Amino acid sequence: MTAPRMAYQYVVLRCVPRPDREEFLNVGVVLHCQSADFLDADWSCDRERLRALDPGLDVDQVCESLAFVERVCRGDARAGEAARQPLGQRFGFLKAPRSTVLQPGPVHGGVTDDPARQLAHLRERLVG
Asked: Which of 35, 77, 114, 115 is most buried, most CB within 10 Å of its CB?
């Protein structure tokens, strides 16, 4: 018997060091699968590529922002009020556009039988 196919949504997280130049680097993915009660993030911060976009960028702060996203996904109390919300509201919080260095791209969707494996696949394909 095959596992059921479940719909999911995801956003790619982009580091935009200088919005005036409209350059960005994909640094993470957030995936939400409501039917599997799943919300998680997977990320990778390529310090050299980020510094190539902006030598003055605080890459440690970018990594801390990505860790915050991960904590929100996992309901970690250190992430504050956002982490205490239901999964769908947490995803809504994380996919909302912001004018910061770390920005979510558009929402995309698909179907999967394994949300965690799909998240790893998307991170590898879209972030590297």
From this structure: 115
